[in-house]
Amino acid sequence: MNNSNPVSPVQEFEYKAEMKQLLDLIVHSLYTHPEIFLRELISNASDALAKVRFGALTDQTLTEGDSDLGIRITIDPEELTFVIEDNGIGMTEEELITNLGTVAKSGTLGFMQALKEQQKELDGNLIGQFGVGFYSVFMVTDEVTVETRSAKTDSEGYRWKSAGQGTYTIEKIDKPGRGTKIFFKLKEESKEFAEEYRVEHIIKKYSNFVDFPIRLGDKQVNSMTALWQRSKSELKDEEVNEFYKFIANDFQDPLDYLHVSVEGMVSFKALLFLPKEAPMDLLYRQSELENRGPQLYVKKVMIQHECRDLLPEYLRFIGGVVDTEDLSLNVSREIVQSSPVMSKIRQILTGKILGWFETLAKEQPEKFRTFYKAFGPIVKIGLNTDFTNRDKLIELLRFESTKTAEEEYVTLKEYIGRMQEDQKEIYYHSGSNRSQLLAHPNLEYFQDKGIEVLLLSDPVDVFVIPSISEYEKKPLKSIEKADIDFSAEKKAGSESLPENLLQPVLGLFREKLGDRIEDVVESHRLVTSPVTLVSGKDALDSQMERMMKMMQTEMPAGKKILEVNTAHPIIRNLSGMYMANAANPLISIVIEQLYDGALLHEGGLDSTTAFLSRMNDLIEAATLQR
Question: Do domains 11-220 and 480-626 have the same CATH topology?
Fold first, then answer.
């Protein structure tokens, strides 16, 4: 983009390549709610007004001669024209290029293209989340004009114009006051948005709680009510839900909300919301949590739109408003971060929110299940970061188990309550999905004895659950560990190989597999499978190793212990083959095949070529006519 040495007062610019593609997606893809263009334009105007009001706290010249902040909308149903203007912070030429000529967030284009390829509707909610709200105007018009002047001293006016086809123009204009005016002619199929009743309905639906008056003609349309300042008994679900949709850019009602009023060492009021599902950008990039948080108000004036210092990272999916009088109105970002007032508010809010979750679990279990399914993986992060509230977080954990149906959950307390009388440990099994976990050989002993095992298929589990060393004095132990005590279950009599045959068989495996394994031992956990791989006492389990590989962590794979079920027919037959002819080539093939089969179960078999070749050799030997 080149803006030097213009040959005329009107300069033409090209959108960056990704911007052209994004505009094409917005204009030509089917959105479920084209009306959201107005929500986005009002939201941008509100942000501009908030910035000038905040700036005026320390520089009153910003609002000299024009302190009546607000938004005005003018429509003409005959001409199909639409005008929205504000007297907010305005934009310089450089800000026009930055704000209206580039994609707001990295990754936006790739994400929206992926949705299109999956043939999913690009819901209007995504527009606000990814910072491309202004461009939604091209759903209802073929060309848009923006006239703006920055509130900065000695600023000049500029006109920006584009048809959304790859280029835009900027020219200097005479504009007497600060702020921004956006105007365009509606497409014929969008003429409904030139009707007063329709525009008023949209404003009340999406923007009723904008902090500045919105006038349609000469009539103020929005209520501007600070709901969080009311008592809980005065709140109505309908208006609370409407407020949530406005501040969260969400089309759904919240799953639940929490009203907080605290007076004491610090005083503040808060209205916090639990979404029904994780926002798409949060699912797409969980690093988004870093920059999230509720809105921070001081004496009803917004100080920060998303204040990440109000909540720990693992709770920043909670939206809403926190308003205090214990901070200065001209507080800086640095002061917010280091303020003891903010630290105390954060501490109180975290406790209130965790108590809220606990109440939902007890009193509204279905609502809690919806919450946990959407945000459980994020909340679990707190186990390794918030040690003050660690015990509360542990009580919130939910797990599927071998004694629950799919998507039914058990708590650690419930697990303890139904442990077998002589059971000393809480057992868990990690893997990628429930069906794979239930089919694993390491589960056979526990299934056979009716011992409940927690099934951990959430990728976060392998990082956080091992950190819970015990619960109510019962150690948590992976069933993949070799140090589980099975001594009471040692097989007796005719089932097991006698000692004089056992050691030679184990020796065969050790000799053949060499340094690929840590050791070969007799198994007491297997019931129907011939062999399995387990981790040593201090080793990572296989799921953790896989996760480390996915994260491209440079670490060598740990050696496993091979357990052999000496009561299994294959192992007994192998012993017989060895006694009859120690040089039988099938012995080596069987051992390799058993080992690779165990690797396959673990998801650690890198190549199936040799595995399939040996399988064919064994089938050939088995079908050989004698």
Answer: no
CATH architecture, domain defined by 480-626? Up-down Bundle (1.20)
- With a CB cutoff of 8 Å and minimum separation 6, the contacts of 206 are 36, 38, 39, 42, 245, 246
The pTM is what?
0.71
Q: Which pLDDT band holds residue 124 (cuts at 50, 70, 90)?
A: very low
Q: Where are the alpha helices (DSSP H) in 380-495?
A: 390-396, 412-417, 434-438, 444-449, 461-464
Look at 112-121, 169-178, 206-215, 585-594 and tell me which has the smallest mean pLDDT.
Answer: 112-121
pLDDT in tens, 222-275: 987 789 989 999 999 999 998 998 888 788 999 999 999 999 889 999 999 999
Q: Name the token pair of 363.
A: 């009193």
Domain borders along the chain are 11-220, 227-373, 480-626
For residue 85, give the nearest of 59, 98, 99, 66 by alpha carbon.
66
Q: What strands, in cross-sheet order, belong to the sheet with 301-304? A: 256-262, 268-274, 319-324, 295-298, 301-304
Structure tokens at 595: 């080992």
Number of residues assigned to the chain = 626
Rounded Cα distance between 510 and 506, Å, is 6
Q: Are 99 and 15 in contact (CB under 8 A)?
A: no
- Judged by DSSP in three states, 415 sits in helix
CATH code of domain 11-220: 3.30.565.10
Query: What does the pLDDT look like over 394-420, one tens digit per residue?
Result: 999 999 999 999 989 999 999 999 999
Determine the distance from the C-alpha atom of residue 191 to the mean position of all C-alpha atoms in its chain, rounded to a whole number. Answer: 38
Nearest to 18 by CA among 90, 81, 108: 108
Residues in Cβ contact with 82 at an 8 Å cutoff, skipping those fewer than 6 apart: 73, 74, 75, 140, 141, 183, 184, 185, 186, 193, 194
The answer to whether residues 482 and 535 touch, using CB atoms and an 8 Å cutoff, is yes
- Structure-block tokens of residue 148: 């703006």
Does residue 306 sit in helix, strand or coil?
coil
Q: Number of helices and strands (H, E) in the chain?
A: 21, 22
Instruction: Tell me the one-letter amino acid at 174.
Output: D
Q: Which CATH number fits domain 227-373: 2.60.40.1180, 3.30.230.80, 3.40.120.10, 3.40.50.2000?
A: 3.30.230.80
